[in-house]
Amino acid sequence: AAPTAGLHFTDKLLREIGDENLSFLSLHVGAGTFKPVVAEDARDHKMHAESFQVSVGEVRRIISAIESGKPLIVVGTTSSRTLESLYWCGVKRIAGLDGGSDDLSLGQEEWIPLLEDSDTSSTTAAESFRALIEGKTDDDMLRGSTSLMIIPKKYEFKVVQNLITNFHAPDSTLMLL
């Protein structure tokens, strides 16, 4: 699937935004993205896994933006899901729950016990991202997979402050990111 949320960003608009204000990452969308939620309660839906990748250099740029107080305006639900997943992967790393593996992964509700743990619940986005890039060069890539489900009124965003996206079909997993 094309990154539809950003298709209306022309070259002119991207120049106006400026390279210093842009970061790029990838979430590889699968067929599960378009699978409707048929469970009466969204929490009973089994969320599909998707793989993601982002360069360490881009993560450093995002950390810099966060620390300088720039608002993050994320384009697309898939970009949002990737950033939120990276946050929780970093929290897992800080808590010693990922074995230091370069294969990052996040389960559908794996964030819940991390949120409830007093040792990890106050981790900032910058701290979490730093844990993932420690000892890496800008050209290195962070890769992994996520089944993160963001449920309204249950999930509190840790990284994403603003979202620009397009219309999504009712009952699609895109509504749950």
Helices and strands, with pairings:
Elements: H1 11-17, E1 26-28, E2 50-55, H2 56-67, E3 73-75, H3 77-94, E4 103-106, H4 111-116, H5 125-133, E5 141-146, E6 162-164
Parallel strand pairs: 3-6, 4-5
Antiparallel strand pairs: 1-2, 2-5
Tell me about this structure.
With 177 residues, this protein is of the alpha/beta class. It contains 5 helices and 6 strands; from the N terminus they run H-E-E-H-E-H-E-H-H-E-E. It has a 4-stranded mixed sheet. It has a two-stranded parallel ribbon with strand order 3-6. Helix 2 (56-67) packs antiparallel against helix 5 (125-133) and helix 3 crosses helix 5. The longest helix has 18 residues, at 77-94. It is globular. The model has no long low-confidence stretch (mean pLDDT 86).
Ends: how far apart?
Answer: 15 Å
Helix content: 25-40%
Mean of residue pLDDT?
86
Shape: globular
Question: Which class do the helix and strand fractions yield?
Answer: alpha/beta
Strand order of the largest sheet: 1-2-5-4
Computed CA radius of gyration, to the nearest angstrom: 16 Å
Largest sheet: 4 strands, mixed
The helix/strand order is HEEHEHEHHEE
Number of extended strands: 6
Beta-strand share of residues = 5-15%
**Count of DSSP-assigned helices:** 5
Sequence stretches where pLDDT stays below 50 over 5 or more residues? none
